[in-house]
Amino acid sequence: MRKYMNLLPVILTAITLVLGCSHDPNIRKQKYLQSGNKYFERGQYREAAIEYQNAIQIDNRYADAHYHLALSYLRESIWNGAYQELSRTVELQPANTKAELELGNLLLGAKHFKEAQFWAGTVLGHDANSADAHVLLANADAGLENLEESLHEMQRAIELSPNQPRSYVNLAILQLGAKDAVAAEQNFQKAVSLDPKSITPRLALGNFYRSRKRWPEAEQQFRDTIQLAPKNPTPYAALATLLENEGKRTDTEQLLMQAKQAMPDVPEGYRLLGDFYFALNDLPRATAEYGLLFQQHPRDERVEKNYVQLLILSNQPDAAARLNEQFLKKHSTDVDSLILRGEILNAQGRPTEALQPFQAALQRDPQNPAAHYDLGITLASTGDILRATSELQSAVRFRPSMVQAYRTLGILATRKDDMDLLRQTADGFISAQPSLPDGYLMRAGSNLAKDPVAAQADLQKVLAIAPEDSRGYTGMAQLQARQKKYAEANKLFEQALGKNPRDLQAMMGLTQLLVLQKQPAQAAARVHQQIERAPDDPDLYLLLGEFQMAQKEYKAAEQSLGKVLELNPKNVDGVLALAAAQNSLGGVDEAATSYERAIQQAPRDVRAYILLGSLEESRGRWQEAQQHYQKVLNIQSDNPVAANNLAYSLLEHSGNADLALSFAQTARRGLPDQPSTADTLAWAYIHKGAYALAIDLLENVVKAEPANSTYHYHLGLAYQKNHDDSQAKAHFVRALQLNPPQSQADEIRKALNGNAGA
Q1: pTM of the predicted model, to two decimals?
Q2: How far apart are CA 134 and CA 349, in angstroms?
Q3: Is the Cβ–Cβ distance between 341 and 357 less than 8 Å?
């Protein structure tokens, strides 16, 4: 017995040591670093980033964790995060040349050439013979168009490391920039000769031939590369791109099937075919291929997530939800799957519920650009434009190349008529994607009224880089129309429609131009002519219907708008326009049915509720109208139109005056320049006995719209309640002179006789 008792202190000491180690911050942070490294080696960069972040939470000065977190961000294209972490690394380890080189190359990629030069010089200060630093300096010089210095630095890098194929590849690229294709080809070939079994130089040479449209030579290089590395997906992808460029779609498909067979255990290889179908926007085949891959590789998380994404895009959200929820049962905090849950809820028409999973994803990964983007567009769909804008700006901050986020920001800025936001978005887009026309179009739009010279310069840039894009011609036409150069504008609108018969902005601009020139018949004829060119385009019929409504041709408009819904039954704008035409023809019941249809199709689109509420008011069904306005406010609590209408209805029908006042104040904040919201607020003040406040508002309202009998009536009542009978009488008399409706005229006469009530 005593023998075992002697062991007890030893065991307790061992337990104490183990427990002590588990609480030792140095050991814990190292474990997180090691765990992150394992994820990194498997290509699971987001998971690695989380582990590195855990290490940094324990020790914010842990340079190795900052450096590896930066590398994870680089792999995920989270450039801002990578920049911050690399900056922190070199701050903590001033002699970490690897981090300095990464930082320099990151700045180089962002086109901050001066800063890249600085870090190249910093590395050379530590190691004057660093070939990588000379390469960085060469590329920075090239970016600054110092071609002679660039080539000199590249030659120096080759002198220091003469057997490095990548240096010759880099030199060749610089020579291409200097338009010396002969020398570039020689150096690409030199790189291949230095290491005939390396695939990188061959791929570079193949891409050179492809850029020169020397298709057979490019194909040979890519096929040779496949022979060298039959289980590497990169050469297959390069050859697939070449074959697709040549229009050999069948050959491309066969090649990728071959890749799938050659690499049954290489994820990037067996996914190529499905990704090819997706790139072609062939969702049925992409979904079928990924469904098969999911059966064959059930443990490949990326396959499963891609399959879920494709199910969402293929309008199969319920099937997507089943798979995604099964995954989340095992991995409840997986960021990708939380984002997919939100996207599924959006696809199911449940945007309010979708907010939570996006927010949960961001709690787990605050710099995730996809989560910021999805949260932004979801907030926009719920009417929270301010927060939506903020989230979308975060998305492009963390991933500056996110084109769709810039486009959505541009749409929001245009809807809000926020030219500063539009210009800021345009500048960001241009910086990230200078070869795309969208940023220049946005910036031109922001400058149309303020700086037409700058707008014209941007539009000329669009025409230069995208001569087949109709939007450049449309923008230039809008600019000419603003300057009343109608002949030039007309010609440019026609050029736009020649490039794209479905350019609705061009068609709208052209018809508006013709109406402005007092040629409505010609405008209608031009829309009919365009319909002949694109007879299956519902937007053209919608434009025609709206034009006919403006001309009070209600029957013709009803027929055109019916065609819109025949081509696209889910076109909510078409349904709303059809309801307006039906109402104008006296078909109030038909109009109400159409508004109900619009609500069913888009339950969070507040327009139908407001229009239906107004219609119900017009036929005396004020309780139903109030219900519709309240539904709007349930969706958008600060909607000024619904708040104004509901407030006025409550006041007119003996509703809660305190609640009406609150709604009226909401309306006034949202539409501060509208006389109608001032009148509603004043009417609420009268009901609450705040007559002086009402008078202040209504005096300005009457000045703005002196021919409105209601405004004079309300002002008269306010004066009467405030014991100013002469002013009251003057406004009552003026209100009667303006021929008000009979019911209002009776109320005014009662007021004149001293029997008014509010």
Answers
A1: 0.69
A2: 55
A3: yes
